[in-house]
Design brief:
Number of strands: 34
Oligomer: single chain
Shape: elongated
Distance between the termini: 127 Å
Radius of gyration: 61 Å
Helix content: 40-55%
């Protein structure tokens, strides 16, 4: 089978082995020295080999190399190099075309090749090389009709182009200098004989009909699928390969069969005799049971090593092949070559076993026996101890034994005795005497027993007619043949000629790990070997637990049921031991034993055996190494009984399969005859089972051999016919495994079936199972769930059993890398292969596969993305099918669903990456982006539901391949919104009130955000698993949002600016902007808000801030548009307020604010009907603020009152201020009620502006001293400007004290000096200091003092004191000193140089201060200070108030 596989590999794959052999060379003395060192370099198709070095002018290289060649268009380059000290020199070369290399089946003598010199300095054509270059072609035998037609059709096509190709080859040889195998230029060749019709080689163009016999149909089809000129060139190359291959076949057939014909003198050049190597020698026909089991092994299962071994074997004569050890089973060759000789022998032996079954033999008739003389056990040869009933004795044959040795004796009582008696072989006189004594006692005469056995054979023959008929039909014999064989067999049985005898050679090599029995911890071991009753002993090795004997013994065995008993002893060489030896014949310590059945031996056996206990008390350990060889007398030229049984078993198996049209196995189990330990399944039904059992029992065929033979038959049938049930094969292998692993240890090494042979059977079965699993979707479709999936489950169980057998019995582990340690890895690899092939098919035939599944025909307008989408659909269907039907079967070993999904995903990812990266421009320019986005969603679904949860899953790369398309999609959507949606948005901007809701929606905003939301939905459905890429998409989308909303807001602002005065349109714009902010906030939350990337979040936050600023700006502009009208209304209120008298009632307050209310009625009506509540609230608050501000500016705190520029300055009295406060409260309630209660009264009340106005109105009702006191006590910095722009320094000393008797405070102020005064004047500078006491109750005391005037100095020195009084109960903390440095101006108002204020509360506790004060241009006043000044300035008739206002308003003016 391996031979045929290699032949198929050579013909269909066009690969052939090229043998390169170089022996020696002849170098030109003119080019080389006598002691030169050279070597050769071979180059073929980019590969290079170097020979060993050769010395002298006739160097010897002896180099040989074999390689596999696929392309015969290359040439062989052979370079001759001279090795020198520093650098080798290329001397000459030879070029040989591969097309001109001949074909041989073995190495020949070779030819001389002339080398070409590399330089002109060297003599040309003087170096020669002796080379043998040829192709290795296997022998070809027979042809199938189908293959003959295929090859002849190919030959016809090649004939049309052969001349043209040969001419091309000639042209190339002229240009490159190619030489043929003999060194001639190829251009000198004439046309090929096959082309010109010359059949000098003995084969015409159709000669393959007679020679190619055994090539199976092609398993590899060579096709070309290119286009244009490339297709024509590829066809030429293919035709050239086929032509060269067939030409080599012709030459090889001619040379090989002529050689074989000369050797064996067969007709037709030795063809028939060569075929007889595998067939019957009678007329070339064969009825071998193996003809149907020519396994068609897969090409990929044939290793290179086995191919080389097979070629080497086939190239040798037949008698050498059989004698040599090779990977091909020798028993199989022997059976095939000698089948017609073995077949009659097997038939005869089977008849002999059936006609007088071994079950008819007489068993021993043991009974208790007392001896009065010393007697020895027949089995163990020890004394039978005891006073009475020392042992057992057979009444028929007289055999004596211990009771414990009864089971070890062979059940061959009278049959063996009769054979010895009738043939005169009375080797045991005592036994013969016992037999004769039993006959004389009247039990049964020898003649009667002879007649009795004849009668028993006749009865068996009559009762087993069906059995003999079945056997005859199975072997293909006639009844006459059966009768003649019966007659011969009966004669053999009755005459005793069927005696079995053999010669056994046993070599005790060594032992290891023995137990130490001596006191020193060692032993003195020796070995006894017993076969039957013959016992032999080795020499003793002193004090060694790992002894080596290397002693051989020969035994004559007359019973196949005997046992070989190997026992190891520790010799004790003392007096006590010697005495015990004579008495008991056993005084040495027992170290272990190994017992082997003779029937287990076949040929030579080399094995290590474990030493076992004899009793439970035995302390043994270690192993013993034995070499055994058996030669059966009279069977030297015949096949062994095991080979005969194998032929019998396989013949019956084949015959029953033909009758039953398949394998039909019984379901029952039982213990086979001769084997009471293991329970085996029935191999056959009825008579066939009896036949094999009787044969096995008769000729010592162990049950394990029977089981292994049955396993081999089932395996052959499983591989070839596919009808052997995998479950039965698996169960049988499990029993074989249990037999070897649990009971018999290493006995597989000495199995008669052969460990290597059984391993080869397992190899073929495992290879077939792997092939089946690699195509489980096709062989075990889920359409037939009950049968096919059960077969798949049984096949997996069988493969598991094989792997378990390899591990436990064959002990194949890490040392043998060919077989993995677990079935899981093998099944997983097979499943992967099936998944890969499935993907390859559906990806290649997408449309057809999709049509078969869905029934939809492909659309003519489909693009590549449509096909990819179909492929994804098909892949998902395959994964679902795997999970539903196949996962329950494979999940025992691995998660099949995960493996299926992951394998399909990896294959599809590779293909998708190639598509989207290599052809990116095609997809960007041709395929619509929305279709690619939809396709990516399907990929995401695939990954999310089947791949993302896998344990070892890594981040996928497919989203990155789609990034250009997603960015293009976002750009297109952004352009669509800017150019299509926005221009038409405002035209549709009408408000629509939803049913049951008061919220109003803008159509333009809804349209814009609908588009934006649809874009985000598309992005979110992509469900990108890469965070960085997802953030990139979000950032790009946020940029789109920003651009779209910014552009839309600018358009709204433009609309607003066109009609600022129209409040309705302003409200529409504000509502749109407000709605944009709300929608943007909702979209922001939808996108994940805080979970967004920081860059994307910043873009949206900036957009939101921009919208807020724009909204507030527009609100401010709307309020500014209302300001003029509100200001007019408040001036009317001010005019009405002047008429309010002290007798006015509170109810008339609202009549005063009627102008404002009338205006606000229209405003609030528009706001309520055309704005959102959320927008209306800030609008109302801004309107309220603006109203309060105008009330303050126009009525309460008019700014023109301080400067006394207004014509209508009038101080508000307490009644008017109260009325004004009541008006504000009423107006507040009006705002709350007429704006839809969106603003709470408390909110308006707590506004800072409202509180400030109420405080100001309260101050109108306070006295001047109270207001001044509040002004002084306010914690503010009036001298802040001095820190920035100091106008000079003033050095003062202030003392503050009080007397217990007097009721006032005394304050002494000493103005010391001034310095660094800043003053620009063209006149004479006359500075002086003015001191003012500011506080309550100063109207009746002197409150102003000034120093003397100093001329022409900017640092005047005053040293003047002033005494001030503060009447109690006033406190100094309510007072302050204001110092003013002035320039005296004659007849004009004095000019201010600088001013500074010092509160007295700073010195109240200390009582005195001496300080330099920085002068400032003017005092710093806050809003509260100014409000007090405004109120006091309205009190025109109050001198203190007017003076206070004047002091606080002082400001330096520069004189230019």
């Amino acid at each position: 089978n391996e031979y045929k596989s290699y032949l198929r590999l050579w013909v269909h794959r066009m690969t052939i082995k090229l043998c390169l052999k170089v022996l020696k060379g002849k170098l030109n003395p003119a080019n080389f020295e006598d002691s030169c060192v050279t070597y050769l370099v071979f180059r073929v198709g980019g590969s290079e080999w170097r020979t060993p070095i050769g010395r002298g002018l006739i160097p010897t290289y002896n180099f040989k190399h074999t390689l596999e060649v696929e392309d015969q268009s290359h040439e062989i380059e052979i370079e001759l190099w001279e090795k020198r000290t520093f650098r080798s020199l290329l001397v000459s070369f030879v070029l040989v075309s591969l097309a001109a290399v001949p074909c041989k089946n073995e190495c020949g003598d070779g030819d001389w090749y002339q080398a070409e010199s590399c330089t002109e300095e060297l003599h040309r054509g003087c170096d020669k090389l002796f080379l043998d270059i040829h192709y290795l072609i296997p022998l070809i035998q027979g042809v199938s009709p189908q293959e003959k037609e295929i090859l002849e059709e190919k030959m016809k096509k090649f004939h049309t182009v052969q001349n043209e190709e040969l001419n091309t080859l000639k042209t190339q040889s002229k240009e490159k200098g190619f030489t043929d195998i003999r060194g001639h230029n190829i251009s000198q060749y004439r046309d090929c004989p096959s082309i010109n019709g010359d059949n000098s080689n003995g084969l015409d163009n159709h000669g393959l009909t007679e020679v190619i016999d055994s090539i199976s149909q092609p398993s590899v089809t060579m096709t070309t699928s290119t286009e244009g000129d490339e297709e024509e060139d590829d066809n030429k190359e293919t035709q050239m390969l086929w032509k060269n291959a067939l030409q080599r076949i012709r030459s090889q057939i001619q040379s090989n069969y002529q050689r074989m014909g000369s050797e064996e003198d067969g007709p037709d050049g030795g063809l028939t005799n060569h075929n007889s190597y595998y067939s019957n020698s009678n007329n070339g026909t064969s009825d071998s049971p193996f003809e149907d089991y020519n396994y068609k092994s897969r090409i990929e299962d044939i290793s290179e090593c086995k191919l080389q071994q097979m070629l080497a074997m086939l190239s040798k004569p037949k008698h050498q092949v059989i004698s040599e050890e090779s990977s091909v089973d020798q028993d199989s060759f022997f059976i095939i070559n000698n089948y017609n000789k073995i077949k009659p022998l097997v038939f005869q032996k089977t008849i002999q076993a059936l006609i007088y079954p071994i079950s008819l033999n007489e068993p021993h008739k043991f009974h208790s026996w007392t001896t009065f003389t010393p007697a020895v056990c027949y089995e163990c040869e020890r004394l039978l101890w005891g006073v009475a009933k020392q042992g057992l004795r057979c009444s028929a044959c007289g055999v004596k034994c211990h009771e414990k040795c009864q089971e070890l004796l062979n059940a061959d009582c009278l049959q063996r005795a009769m054979q010895k008696t009738l043939r005169g072989e009375n080797e045991d006189a005592a036994q013969h005497e016992n037999i004769m004594r039993s006959i004389e006692k009247g039990n049964m005469s020898l003649k009667s027993k002879f007649l009795f056995r004849r009668q028993r054979m006749k009865v068996t023959e009559n009762s087993s007619k069906d059995t003999f008929e079945l056997l005859t039909l199975a072997f293909g014999y006639t009844n006459d043949k059966l009768d003649s064989v019966k007659k011969e067999v009966k004669h053999l049985i009755l005459t005793g000629s069927s005696k079995w005898s053999a010669k056994i050679d046993i070599t005790v090599v060594e032992a290891r790990g023995l137990a130490g029995k001596d006191k020193s911890g060692t032993s003195d071991p020796y070995v006894t070997v017993q076969v039957g009753k013959t016992n032999k002993k080795t020499r003793t090795i002193l004090q060694d637990l790992n002894p080596k004997w290397n002693q051989s013994f020969s035994f004559d065995c007359n019973n196949s049921s005997d046992r070989i008993k190997v026992r190891v002893w520790d010799e004790d060489d003392d007096f006590k031991s010697k005495v015990m030896t004579h008495l008991r014949r056993e005084a040495d310590d027992f170290l272990g034993q190994a017992i082997i059945d003779v029937k287990q031996l076949c040929g030579e056996t080399d094995v290590w055996l474990d030493l076992k206990q004899r009793t439970d008390r035995s302390d043994v350990s270690g192993q013993i190494h034995l070499k055994m060889m058996i030669k059966i007398e009279g069977e030297e030229q015949n096949a062994s009984y095991h080979i005969q049984y194998q032929i019998l078993h396989e013949t019956l198996f084949k015959h029953l399969c033909e009758i039953n049209q398949g394998v039909l196995l019984p379901n029952s189990k039982r213990k086979l005859k001769g084997d009471e330990t293991d329970e085996w399944p029935m191999f056959f039904d009825g008579q066939a089972q009896d036949i094999v059992e009787e044969f096995a029992t008769r000729y010592g065929i162990e049950s394990i051999f029977m089981a292994m033979t049955q396993f081999s038959c089932l395996t052959q049938r499983f591989i070839s016919k596919k009808d052997a049930p995998a479950q039965s094969v698996s169960e049988l292998l499990v029993l074989i495994n249990a037999h070897y692993s649990n009971k018999h240890g290493q006995e597989i090494n000495v199995s008669n079936f052969g460990k290597d042979k059984f391993t080869a059977v397992l190899d073929r079965l495992q290879s077939t199972l792997k092939e089946n699993l690699a195509s489980y979707k096709a062989l075990y479709p889920p359409s037939d769930v009950n049968d096919k999936l059960l077969d798949l489950q049984n096949s997996i169980a069988l493969l598991t059993s094989i792997i378990f057998f390899r591990l436990k019995v064959l002990q194949q582990g890490n040392k043998n890398n060919k077989y993995p340690l677990s079935a899981t890895s093998i099944i997983k690899e097979c499943v992967k292969m099936c998944l890969k092939s499935t993907y390859s098919y559906i990806s290649t035939n997408v449309d057809e596969s999709y049509r078969q599944v869905t029934g939809k025909m492909p659309d003519e307008e489909e693009n590549r993305v449509d096909k990819l989408s179909k492929l994804v659909t098909l892949i998902l269907m395959e994964i679902k099918e795997d999970k539903r039907y196949y996962a329950p079967i494979f999940d025992k070993f691995f998660n099949h669903g995960e493996l299926s999904a992951l394998t399909f995903w990896q294959l599809f990812s590779e293909y998708l990456k190639e598509e989207l990266t290599d052809d990116k421009d095609y997809y960007l320019e041709t395929i619509p982006t929305h279709q690619i986005m939809q396709f990516q969603k399907s990929i995401t679904f695939f990954y999310k539901h089947y791949i993302s949860e896998l344990p070892d899953n890594t981040a996928p790369e497919y989203p990155r391949w789609f990034k250009p398309f997603v960015n293009k999609y976002l750009s297109e959507k952004e352009s669509h919104n800017l150019n299509s949606i926005l221009p038409k948005a405002l035209d549709k901007d009408t408000f629509q009130i939803e049913a049951g809701s008061s919220i109003k929606h803008s159509s333009s905003v809804i349209d814009i955000f609908d588009n934006l939301t649809s874009i985000y939905d598309s992005l979110s459905k992509l469900d990108c698993p890469l965070p960085d890429l997802n953030d990139s998409y979000h950032k790009r989308f946020c940029e789109t949002i920003d651009r779209v909303l910014t552009e839309y807001t600018k358009r709204l602002v433009g609309v607003f600016n066109e009609d600022k005065g129209v409040l309705y349109k302003s409200c529409v714009v504000l509502c749109n902007i407000h709605q944009i902010r709300d929608e943007l906030q909702s979209l922001y939350k939808t996108m994940g808000s805080e979970r967004l990337d920081i860059d994307a979040r910043k873009i949206l936050e900036d957009t939101q801030r921009f919208l807020k600023v724009e909204r507030n700006t527009l609100i401010t502009e709307v309020i500014e548009n209302m300001r003029v009208h509100i200001h007019k209304c408040i001036r009317e209120i001010k005019a009405e307020l002047r008429n309010v008298k002290s007798s006015a009632k509170k109810d008339n307050c609202m009549d005063i604010v009627a102008p404002v209310i009338e205006y606000f009625d229209n405003i609030f009506a528009i706001l309520v009907n055309n704005t959102y509540e959320a927008l209306r609230k800030p609008l109302v608050r801004q309107i309220w603020k603006q109203t309060l501000k105008l009330f303050e500016e126009v009525i309460i705190l008019p700014s023109d009152t301080i400067t006394h520029k207004g014509d209508d300055i009038q101080e508000l009295d307490s009644k008017q201020s109260q009325v004004l406060e009541d008006m504000l409260n009423g107006l507040k309630l009006y705002f709350v009620e007429n704006t839809g209660n969106i603003v709470k009264q408390k909110t308006l009340q707590n506004m800072a502006e409202m509180k400030e106005l109420k405080g100001v109105l309260a101050q109108y009702r306070k006295t001047t001293d109270t207001l001044i006191k509040e002004f002084v006590n306010q914690a503010h910095q009036q001298n802040n400007l001095a820190e920035v722009d100091s106008q000079g320094e003033l050095h003062v000393q202030v003392d503050l004290y009080t007397h217990t008797v007097q009721e006032h405070w005394d304050c002494t102020v000493k103005v010391v000096s001034a310095s660094r005064l800043h003053w620009n004047t063209t006149k004479m500078f006359t500075p002086f200091v003015e001191v003012n006491l500011i506080g309550p109750g100063t109207s009746s005391v002197k409150r102003r003092f000034q120093t003397s005037k100093k001329n022409k100095t900017y640092s005047p020195l005053f040293n003047e004191c002033f005494h001030l009084k503060i009447e109690k109960p006033n406190d100094p903390i309510d007072y302050e000193l204001q110092f003013c440095v002035k320039d005296f101006c004659f007849l004009q108002t004095d000019k201010l140089v600088g001013v500074v204020v010092m509160p007295l509360k700073q010195i109240r506790d200390t009582g005195s201060i001496h300080v330099r004060l920085d002068l400032c241009r003017s005092l710093t006043l806050d809003r509260a200070d100014k409000s007090i000044l405004i109120i006091l300035s309205q009190r025109l008739h109050d001198e203190v108030a007017q003076e206070f206002v004047k002091l606080k308003k002082l400001e330096k003016t520069e004189i230019i």
